């Protein structure tokens, strides 16, 4: 106590003297400035390689105040200043941005297992029942085994899906300052809970009805669902399986929500961009329709069996995925242990963004990258591997991610996008409304959408009107 009094009396003496007050203020400010400056320098203590370079950040808020509206463009510009891998402190969270195929390969392929986890944001935690889905689950063998069984579920709840993606896309202060989680200043928690409540009501009713009709069928000796099972039935059957890891109803709901949130808006965004590019490029439109005429014929509707033969349309869609990558930073990864990428330490738990938008438009890897040119996907690459969506042939191109956290819906998405676009451009001719100009400006969010929705006017293309009935 007497020691404390000594300290206090020193402080009282000092604070009685104005000159000394100013001196104390200056010295304190200098000390703070030095501490802050040192904290922003790359650290190379304990012999580990330094952190990646990056902009100096302010105390507490980091670089948050300097973020603009179009983060994909801002981060791409920053890569020109800081190099292919840079760091950024947002609030108290360290973010690492990767901007070249070589480094993306290190993260997505070479150190795939370390980078197979994701950080659960506040919004994600609510809508996934605390991470019980695929997207935000830890690198989880149970879900891995389930993948590949997508296929039959119809996208029913599309408005909710749009809302959920919009809330995901909001920069939530509570994710950068976990201490603020309880206050929910921006209403992210509140809005997501509302969506979850709606979803729960709908899904509980659907599942209840199905369980009741299953038990009726069982009662009447019908067990095989007429030889056809939809996605919900497959999951319910898994729930009842007596193996080591049966599914809970909550996991089933989380999985269905993944399909809705991760599957519908992404696909519709891609369809809209492709439609806009085809309409903007008259020659592309002509080639797409000519191919459809040859493969399908004007007296037929498009069927699944035609899809593999539509090579030009496939190239048009691939080119759209390149130029208008739907999920610009993939779904951020978070390493489970400290590791080294491109000669820099990536600390455990940091948030890693893979800048696919920059890589897909990098002139070092693409000729005339801003030109919409589907022909580049018709050619085989140097090593004679055909372009695919998984980043197998080259890491210049990975619109669905790569490695063990690759998009789980890729086989379904690939078929859906082909079938929808083939049907739209085979059955109809499309034009813009009178006086309307095609606009390709972007709106950044979790997905990059068209800023203004595409409005197109269809007219009959097939000769036989009965095909439309
Ligand atoms: C054009 C359509 C789509 C695009 C562009 C797209 C893109 C992506 C991307 C970039 C990722 C992150 C991959 C990574 O981090 O490496 C992802 C993950 C995921 N996608 Fe898709 N996706 C699409 C359609 C779908 C569909 C139709 C479904 C479901 C039916 C789906 C379900 C998922 C799931 C569950 C994950 C998480 C996988 C995991 O974490 O293991 N996606 N998607």
Automatic annotation (TrEMBL):
The keyword Oxidoreductase applies. It comes from the Eukaryota. One of its GO terms (molecular function) is oxidoreductase activity, acting on paired donors, with incorporation or reduction of molecular oxygen. InterPro entries: Cyt_P450 (IPR001128), Cyt_P450_CS (IPR017972), Cyt_P450_E_grp-I (IPR002401), Cyt_P450_sf (IPR036396). The keyword Transcription regulation does not apply. Heme binds at residue 407. Keywords: Heme, Iron, Metal-binding, Monooxygenase, Oxidoreductase. Its cofactor is heme. Belongs to the cytochrome P450 family. This is Cytochrome P450. It comes from Mikania micrantha. The lineage of its organism: Eukaryota, Viridiplantae, Streptophyta, Embryophyta, Tracheophyta.
């Amino acid at each position: 106590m007497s020691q404390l009094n000594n300290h206090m009396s020193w402080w009282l003496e000092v604070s009685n003297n104005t000159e000394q007050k100013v001196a104390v203020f200056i010295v304190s400010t200098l000390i703070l400035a030095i501490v802050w400056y040192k904290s922003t320098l790359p650290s190379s203590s304990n012999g580990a390689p330094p952190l990646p370079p990056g902009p100096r950040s302010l105390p507490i808020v980091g670089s948050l105040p300097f973020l603009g509206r179009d983060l994909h463009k801002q981060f791409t510009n920053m890569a020109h200043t800081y190099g292919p891998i840079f760091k950024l402190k947002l609030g108290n969270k360290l973010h690492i941005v990767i901007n070249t195929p070589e480094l993306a390969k290190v993260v997505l392929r070479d150190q795939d297992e370390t980078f197979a986890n994701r950080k659960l944001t506040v919004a994600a935690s609510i809508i996934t029942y605390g991470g019980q889905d695929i997207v935000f689950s830890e690198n989880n063998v149970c879900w891995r085994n389930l993948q590949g069984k997508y296929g039959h579920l119809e996208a029913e709840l599309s408005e909710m899906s749009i809302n959920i993606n919009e809330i995901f896309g909001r920069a939530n202060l509570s994710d950068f300052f976990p201490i603020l989680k309880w206050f929910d200043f921006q209403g992210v928690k509140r809005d997501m809970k509302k969506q979850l409540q709606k979803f729960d009501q709908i899904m509980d009713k659907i599942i209840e009805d199905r369980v009741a009709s299953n038990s009726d069928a069982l009662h009447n000796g019908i067990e095989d669902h007429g030889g056809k099972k939809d996605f919900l039935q497959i999951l319910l059957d898994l729930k009842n399986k007596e193996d080591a890891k049966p599914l809970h109803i909550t996991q089933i709901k989380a999985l269905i929500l993944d399909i809705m949130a991760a599957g519908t808006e992404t696909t519709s965004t891609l369809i809209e961009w492709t439609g806009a590019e085809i309409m903007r490029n008259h020659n592309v439109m002509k080639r797409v329709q000519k191919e459809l005429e040859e493969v399908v014929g004007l007296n037929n509707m498009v069927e699944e069996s035609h899809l593999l033969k539509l090579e030009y349309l496939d190239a048009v869609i691939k080119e759209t995925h390149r130029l208008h990558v739907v999920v610009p930073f993939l779904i951020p990864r978070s390493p489970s242990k400290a590791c080294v990428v491109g000669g820099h330490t990536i600390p455990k738990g940091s948030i890693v963004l893979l800048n696919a938008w920059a890589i897909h438009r990098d002139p070092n890897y693409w000729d005339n990258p801003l030109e919409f040119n589907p022909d580049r996907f018709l050619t085989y690459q140097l090593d004679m591997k055909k372009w695919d969506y998984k980043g197998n042939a080259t890491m210049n191109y990975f619109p669905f991610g790569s490695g063990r956290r690759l998009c789980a819906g890729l086989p379904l998405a690939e078929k859906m996008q082909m079938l929808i676009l083939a049907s739209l451009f085979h059955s109809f001719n499309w034009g813009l409304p009178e006086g309307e100009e095609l606009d390709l400006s972007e709106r950044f969010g979790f997905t990059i959408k068209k800023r203004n929705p595409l409005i197109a006017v269809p007219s009959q293309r097939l000769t036989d009107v009965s095909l439309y009935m």
